[in-house]
Amino acid sequence: ANIPSPCFVLEEELLDRNLAVFDRVQKSAPIRIMLALKGFSLFHSFPQIRTTLKGASASSLWEARLAAEEFGTEVHVYSPAYRAEDVPEILTYASHMTFNSIGQWEQFRPQVEGYAPHKPSAGLRINPQYSPVKTALYNPCQPSTRLGVSAEHLGDTLPAGIDGFLSHNLCESDSFALEKTLANIEKLFARFLPDLKWLNLGGGHLMTRKDYDVNHAIEVLNAFHTRHPHIQLLMEPGSAIAWETGFLIGKVLDLIPTDDLVNVMLDVSFTAHMPDCLEMPYQPEIRGAREPEVGDTIYRMGGSSCLAGDFLGDYAFDRELAIGDRVIFEDMMHYTMVKTSMFNGVVHPSIGRIDKEGKFKLWREFSYEDYRSRLG
């Protein structure tokens, strides 16, 4: 009752459960696991996360600064295209800096190698020419991709000054996709491996999903290390860190019956607050809801924006919904807060946590001034 609506709520006990999985992997295989801020950047939780993870990865200047200021360990930075005016400040934060193309590396190499306080370890993103991802929006290895350098474009030797490779080609994938990724890298980039210092396997390793074969992943990582003991393995999961660690709570504002179903008008928006539901797309789990059966009242969840497609369905409940009821969307930590917008000026969800004693603490509320300040 003391949780405002709408509100994103992190459950600390569930986050600890996920961190225990990564702790086990790091203790069983020679790999350093980092937090990818592009998937989860709730900095209030960083003190809890950094007890296990070895650093943070960033995709921009602002993420790099947040990682440095709030996470405070290694900061691995990669951008599809760096802005020249951002690079001097990025260098102050980055322990590792990865480039998307040979051209960008050549452009910024003098600054990276000449940075006096510390020289970041430089890397290139590669295209392993394999991805199990079916949704084109999330597939970085689709034909004519702009992401990563293919083996045939790298010549015969590792470009001067490059220490490592980044391969990011997975999305909520299993350990067998990890195994195939490493096999493709060994096949296509074999001539460069003797000179590499590190290999970052990117994100998309959903180790905290219940059906993920963690033992198999550990075997795969150890086997690669046996073949290439000089290469430091890295990984930067996005979804997996915060997988099933919290929810988004909303409220029923109106019920609009039609001949076929009841439209549930909520104070949350799919397009503004849960965009992956529409982009992937996928239908989120709702606490206490189930698949409709014959004879059930069908409820279609409608978002609070005026976008015609701001809805998802269909659901059934064991009791009829009423105006004022709370609706809890499960697993709403990863790729939600980092992608929300203030489209339509709809009320933005607050942010809070439930601690290990079951007590709720409100971390952040948003106001009209937050909306206004983004526009001028």
List the helices and strands and how they pair.
Blueprint (H helix, E strand, L loop, with lengths): L6 E5 H17 L2 E3 L1 E2 L9 H4 L5 E4 L2 H11 L2 E6 L7 H7 L2 E4 L2 H12 L7 E5 L38 E3 L8 H14 L9 E3 L13 H14 L4 E4 L10 E12 L4 E5 L3 H4 L2 H4 L9 E2 L8 E4 L8 E7 L8 E5 L19 E5 L5 E5 L3 H6 L3
Parallel strand pairs: 1-17, 2-10, 3-4, 4-5, 5-6, 6-7, 7-8, 8-9, 9-10, 12-14
Antiparallel strand pairs: 1-11, 11-12, 11-16, 13-15, 14-15, 17-18
Helix pairs in contact: 3-4, 6-7
Give a quick precis of the structure.
With 376 residues, the protein is an alpha/beta fold.
Q: Which descriptors would you attach to this protein?
A:
single chain; nine-stranded mixed sheet; nine-stranded parallel sheet; 10 helices; 22% strand
What does this structure look like?
The chain is α/β, with parallel strands linked by helices and 376 residues long. It has ten helices and 18 strands. The longest helix is centred in the first third of the chain and has 17 residues, at 12-28. The protein is globular. The two termini are 36 Å apart.
Instruction: Calculate Rg over CA atoms.
Output: 22 Å
Can you tell me the overall shape? Answer: globular
Strand content range: 15-25%
Count every helix, treating DSSP H or I runs of 4 or more residues as helices: 10
Helix content: 10-25%
**Distance N terminus to C terminus?**
36 Å
Query: In terms of structural class, how would the helical and strand content be classed?
Result: alpha/beta
> Biggest sheet, in brief?
9 strands, mixed
Order of helical and strand elements: EHEEHEHEHEHEEHEHEEEHHEEEEEEH
- Spans where pLDDT lies below 50 across 5 or more residues: none
Question: What oligomeric arrangement do these chains adopt?
Answer: single chain
Care to count the β-strands?
18
* Arithmetic mean of pLDDT: 97
